[in-house]
């Protein structure tokens, strides 16, 4: 089984109660409200995975511009290797913040 595609969906409710730190803006630069980013992982076996992370600025960009290319074609069940590959791909972004939200 191999990963064939990775897409993201950003959901944001300006009316929602913020989770965690209300000072973190959304990917659109809005502060407050409640949001989540969902990451959809598709495989050649028609099995899909779903992950989610905080809707902080840059997370979608890191996923789509760096991590997606790193993961396409790899075995989704080899979690430790995938995590290690993602870590080394984004290590230049720092060891916390958006890079690790994207990996999560």
UniProtKB/TrEMBL annotation:
Biased segments, Polar residues type: 1-11
Residues covered by region (Disordered): 1-34
InterPro entries from the UniProt entry: Enolase-like_N (IPR029017)
Gene3D superfamilies reported for this sequence: Enolase-like, N-terminal domain
UniProt-recorded name of the protein: Uncharacterized protein
Annotated source species: marine metagenome
């Amino acid at each position: 089984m191999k990963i064939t595609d990775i897409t993201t969906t950003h959901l944001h409710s300006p009316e929602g109660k913020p989770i965690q730190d209300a000072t973190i803006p959304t990917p659109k630069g809005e502060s407050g409200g409640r949001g989540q980013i969902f990451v959809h992982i598709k495989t050649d076996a028609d099995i899909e995975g779903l992950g989610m992370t905080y809707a902080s600025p840059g997370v979608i960009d890191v996923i789509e511009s760096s991590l997606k290319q790193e993961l396409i074609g790899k075995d989704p069940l080899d979690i430790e290797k995938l995590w290690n590959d993602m870590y080394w791909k984004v290590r230049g972004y720092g060891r916390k913040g958006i890079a690790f939200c994207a990996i999560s």
